[in-house]
Amino acid sequence: MKAYSTDLRQKILETYENEPISQRQLAKRFRVALSFIVKLLKQ
C-alpha cells in the first residue's frame, strides 16, 4: 500500500484543529482508516 502524501496529512491535521470533528468523521471525510487518523494525531 502506498504511503499517504504529506499534503493529505497536513489537510487532515488542519481540519482537526479548525473544526469540531471527531476522528471517525475525519476518517470518513478523507477516506482513510481510523487507525491512520489516530496514529497521525499522536505524532
Explain what this protein looks like in three dimensions.
The protein is mostly helical and 43 residues long. The chain has one domain (6-42). Helices cover 70% and strands 0% of the residues. It has helices at residues 6-18, 23-30, 34-42. Helix 2 packs across helix 3. It is globular. It starts with 5 loop residues before the first helix and ends with a helix. The model has no long low-confidence stretch (mean pLDDT 94).
Question: Helices and strands: which structural class?
Answer: mainly alpha
Number of domains: 1
Between the first and last Cα atoms, what is the distance in angstroms? Answer: 21 Å
Globally, the shape reads globular
Could you state the order of secondary-structure elements as H and E? HHH
Low-pLDDT residue intervals, each spanning 5 or more residues:
none
Total number of strands: 0
Number of helices: 3
- Roughly what percent helix? 55-70%
Overall pLDDT: 94
| Major sheet attributes | none
**In percent terms, what proportion of residues is strand?**
under 5%
In angstroms, what is the radius of gyration? 10 Å
